[in-house]
Amino acid sequence: LTNRLRLLRAERGWSQAEVAERLGVSRQTVNAIETRRYDPSLPLAFSIARLFGIAIEQIFDPEAQT
Amino acid sequence: VSAAGPPPPRPEPADDGADGAAPEPGCATGLYTARDLRHQIRFLLWMAATAAGYIGATAAQRHGASIPMPLRWGIVGLACLLALQAIRSYLAFLRTADELLRRIQMEALALGFGVGAAFSVLYPLLEGLGAPRLSGRAGALAMLLAWSAGSWIGERRYSGKGDA
């Protein structure tokens, strides 16, 4: 599962810790998602989409390779 | 249209929390939220109480002759209650834990259970071949050690430290 989380975060100038705090998860969870070591649960994926105000498929792509 | 583009992301280390933003208070690795840390401290305190209860109950068994039977029952019962409370606090920790931390703990528990069960079933076969005889508690010890090792391995795996 590839994702654009790091890019979206950079566009807003947020640190991993800030994103983690907004999502109510640990900073390492954000880091693991960005580095594709961990795929978030569906509720967390929706929370991420809501945080950035875009559709979930605009962040996560099960097929694309980065 | 600005050619500058989005600002560059702040440098993000693998997991040490030194990314320009202050890590959570008391959170050395960034793996624990403040709530996780609270729950884990509570669990560790109950574990310490359980260990003290176990030591007390063991001592009461050894010196059983000088201790009235109802008191011995009370001490052992207290040790059991403390252990149950430790289990409850671990479940509370697990149910509310950050989802990556929960994943790490689940994998560690699977490793601990597997190692403990395999050790308990297979080691007697080795004893039959001449390996040293171990206490009946050895299986539980193997389980706890494998659980601890699994937690450590999981934290490294998901932080990227294990990639090297």
Task: Please count the beta strands of chain A (DSSP E, at least 2 residues each).
Answer: 2
Radius of gyration of chain B: 22 Å
Q: Tell me, briefly, the overall form of chain A.
A: globular
Task: Give the low-confidence spans of chain A.
Answer: none
Determine the fraction of residues in helical runs of chain B and give it as a percent range.
55-70%
What is the rounded distance between the termini of chain B? 42 Å
Helix content of chain A: 40-55%
Question: Radius of gyration of chain A in whole Å, from Cα?
Answer: 11 Å
What would you say this structure looks like, in words?
The complex is a heterodimer of chains A (66) and B (164). With 66 residues, chain A is mainly alpha-helical. Chain A has four helices and two strands. Chain A has helices at residues 5-12, 16-23, 27-34, 42-52; strands at 2-3, 60-61. In chain A, α2 (16-23) crosses α3. Chain B is flat and about 55 Å long. Chain B is mainly α and 164 residues long. In chain B, 66% of the residues lie in helices and 0% in strands. The two termini of chain B are 42 Å apart. The longest helix of chain B is centred in the last third of the chain and has 30 residues, at 99-128. Chain A binds chain B through residues 6-7, 9-11, 13, 15-18, 20, 24-29, 31-32, 34-35, 37-38, 40-41, 44, and chain B through 6-10, 12, 14-15, 17, 19-24, 27, 29-33, 36, 98-101, 103, 157-160.
